[in-house]
């Protein structure tokens, strides 16, 4: 490890942790099943063998992320020939987080920030020369990819906020030399849309009431075309232009609850509905790369299922569905649409990148991300629908340890401690598939419940908007209802439940320990906001267009009523109510939930002599990217949960090696970690 710093804490305070002693395990049943061997943390949280596979647009080459001296870099080779693959980047820091192909199949593009600051730069690697070019070489500037066109190879359209940090101007950028040409200066628009000829045609401007005007560029300037009401802003968006550049395809929830796939001619008001569902929003639309026409989409209730919008593709989609058994995402398509790069993940085996051939109907393996996982005993995820107290359906995912549910059918033979694993956002969702955190927890002896609480996306606008002004109220009730359901089902007992999550999930953890101080045995907060007022005061400037969405969801601090609401729903306001152990983890460079969010609640707890352990990473942002930091964090979290819920704990070993972890406060409440550190001194 690079450094560790401990705060001096009175040993007498350790008595406050009495509520976190190891619980007595349930008595033996007629058939006692031994737990499987411990899965090493580095198997689940270290670098995968390969990840993020892609085929080039001409389908002759493949790319993927894989380690070079322990750091994830980009590799390129001939399609399916891993002996021909070699690294095209040589990053020695936090690695390359994401990449995609330029449509000329001669350049690979990737984004990277500095130590988690989210000032993303866009880079291009020329496969012929091997040179890497920063397409946005400006300090403190964030670049975002807007689009490219097969009609204009060698250039991309990029947004950059170098003129005004709040707004991204639109540039056409050459991949060969980085020369940029201004296409549109941004007067205060949250989003621009380009047509298939790379012309800036549409923009979105957020209005004071939280709605959004879609503007059309005309000879007389920008003119309002239509309005997206505030309640539709998170469920309505433009997919892209049609082939003639005379209309757009959209996901549209206006005048309905679930977002439908529609086509709307420019200047007109009434869209033509292509596909819709009464159960969930349309998602994952597949568009023909040459005709720009949607031909398939997915509906994801418990698991995604694919449907054709074009009769010619109906047999193809039928063949595709027949070869899927879990989660699936189509990540890329060749320009002729013959080859799709597909990510597949069953819950109890390693994710697999595959290639689907639309001509033959064959779905073939490209590579397995973590082959060693397939030699280990994993748990199956069960999709369940839990009723909320006010009648909403909460699509959730349950994972139970093998020793508690030998048949892995979701009907355990004995209870086990439970971790409520809360997703971030809140405008996101949990989905079916392999989840390394859930596998880690079940292997240690905990059941895991992931609930899509109100405000989660994918289930219609009414469900999303049901969470507005309900942070720490109805949203938290959904989490409590899911916990109570698990108790009623005999999965766990009421006094053996922890809560854990990142971002909004971290906030939910703090809410759980402050608003319902006896509901959970302990909590793990990862980059969660503690103070909604300071959260909105410090959001990045380029989130300006999204500010009103936050106001509608949390409260408007510019009004007396809104400010009062935000203070009342902030965990920091109720910090004196905390009775159960808390572990907080934070990245020092987080631009969304700044370090102050964790600092202030830790200081407030220290001032009240309330025990808390605080882990800080100086080279991370909103979540932890370096595997060394991930391993050290999960080692700490495992020890913490073991003390709280009595689960199995793998010795720390060398999991702190190379990590920047700084245990700022509360090492005394992590006895196994403290012993490890003292032994290494």
TrEMBL record:
Any single Pfam family the record assigns to this protein: Peptidase_S9
Peptidase S9 prolyl oligopeptidase catalytic domain location: 434-647
Gene3D superfamilies linked to this entry: alpha/beta hydrolase (3.40.50.1820), TolB, C-terminal domain (2.120.10.30)
Keywords, in A-Z order: Hydrolase, Signal
Q: What is the superkingdom listed in this entry's lineage?
A: Bacteria
Q: Name one GO molecular function term.
A: serine-type endopeptidase activity
Which BP terms does GO give this entry? proteolysis
Q: Which residues form the signal peptide?
A: 1-18
* Record-given protein name: Peptidase S9
> In which organism is this protein found?
Alteromonas halophila
Organism classification, top ranks? Bacteria, Pseudomonadati, Pseudomonadota, Gammaproteobacteria, Alteromonadales
């Amino acid at each position: 490890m690079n450094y560790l710093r401990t705060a001096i804490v009175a040993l007498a305070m350790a008595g406050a942790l009495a509520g976190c002693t190891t619980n007595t395990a349930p008595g033996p049943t007629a058939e006692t099943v031994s737990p499987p061997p411990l899965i090493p943390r580095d198997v689940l949280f270290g670098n995968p063998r390969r990840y993020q596979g892609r085929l080039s647009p001409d389908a002759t080459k493949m790319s993927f992320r894989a380690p070079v001296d322990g750091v994830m870099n980009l590799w390129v080779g001939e399609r399916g020939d891993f002996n021909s693959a070699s690294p095209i980047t040589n990053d020695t820091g936090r690695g390359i987080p994401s990449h995609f192909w330029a449509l000329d199949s001669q350049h690979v593009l990737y984004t990277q920030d500095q130590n988690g600051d989210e000032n993303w730069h866009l880079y291009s690697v020329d496969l012929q020369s091997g040179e890497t070019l920063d397409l946005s070489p400006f300090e403190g500037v964030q670049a975002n990819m807007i689009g490219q066109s097969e009609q204009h190879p060698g250039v991309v359209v990029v947004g950059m906020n170098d003129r005004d940090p709040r707004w991204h101007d639109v540039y056409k950028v050459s991949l060969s030399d980085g020369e940029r040409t201004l296409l549109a200066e941004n007067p205060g628009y949250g989003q621009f849309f380009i047509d298939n000829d790379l012309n800036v045609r549409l923009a979105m401007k957020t209005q004071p009431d939280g709605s959004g005007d879609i503007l059309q560029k005309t000879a007389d300037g920008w003119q309002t075309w239509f309005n997206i009401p505030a309640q539709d802003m998170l469920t309505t968006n433009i997919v892209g232009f049609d082939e003639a550049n005379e209309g757009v395809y959209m996901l549209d929830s206006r005048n309905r609850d679930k977002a439908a796939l529609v086509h709307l001619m420019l200047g007109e008001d009434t869209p033509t509905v292509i596909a819709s569902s009464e159960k969930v929003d349309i998602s994952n639309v597949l568009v023909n790369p040459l005709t720009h026409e949607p031909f398939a989409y997915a509906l994801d209730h418990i698991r995604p299922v694919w449907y054709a919008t074009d009769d010619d593709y109906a047999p193809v989609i039928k063949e595709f569905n027949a070869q899927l058994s879990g989660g699936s995402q189509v990540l890329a398509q060749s320009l002729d649409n013959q080859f799709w790069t597909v990510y597949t993940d069953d819950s109890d085996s390693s994710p697999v990148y595959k290639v689907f051939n639309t001509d033959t109907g064959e779905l073939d393996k490209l590579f397995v991300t973590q082959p060693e996982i397939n030699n280990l005993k994993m748990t199956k995820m069960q999709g369940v629908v839990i009723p909320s107290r006010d009648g909403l359906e909460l699509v959730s995912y349950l994972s139970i340890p093998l020793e508690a549910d030998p048949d892995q059918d979701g009907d355990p033979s004995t209870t086990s401690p439970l971790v409520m694993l809360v997703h971030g956002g809140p405008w996101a969702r949990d989905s079916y598939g392999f989840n390394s955190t859930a596998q880690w927890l079940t292997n240690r002896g905990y059941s895991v419940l992931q609930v899509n609480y109100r405000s989660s996306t994918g289930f219609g606008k009414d469900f999303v908007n049901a969470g507005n002004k309900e942070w720490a109220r109805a949203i938290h009730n959904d989490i409590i209802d899911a916990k109570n359901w698990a108790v009623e089902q005999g999965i766990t007992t009421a006094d053996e439940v922890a809560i854990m999550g990142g971002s909004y999930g971290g906030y939910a953890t703090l809410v759980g320990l402050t608003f319902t101080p006896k509901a959970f045995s302990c909590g793990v907060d990862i980059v969660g906001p503690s103070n909604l007022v300071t959260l909105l005061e410090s959001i990045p400037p380029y989130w300006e267009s999204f500010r009103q969405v936050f106001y509608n969801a949390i409260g408007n601090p510019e009004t007396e009523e809104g400010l009062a609401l935000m203070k009342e729903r902030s965990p920091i306001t109720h910090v004196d109510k905390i009775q159960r152990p808390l572990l907080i983890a934070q990245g020092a460079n987080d631009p969304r939930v700044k370090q102050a969010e964790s600092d202030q609640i830790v200081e407030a707890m220290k001032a009240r002599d309330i025990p808390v352990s605080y882990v800080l990473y100086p080279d991370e942002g909103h979540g932890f990217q370096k595997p060394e930091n991930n391993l050290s964090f999960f080692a700490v979290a495992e020890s913490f949960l073991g003390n709280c819920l009595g689960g199995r704990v793998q010795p720390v070993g060398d999991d702190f090696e190379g990590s920047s972890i700084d245990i700022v406060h509360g090492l005394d409440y992590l006895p196994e970690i403290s012993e490890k550190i003292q032994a290494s001194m």
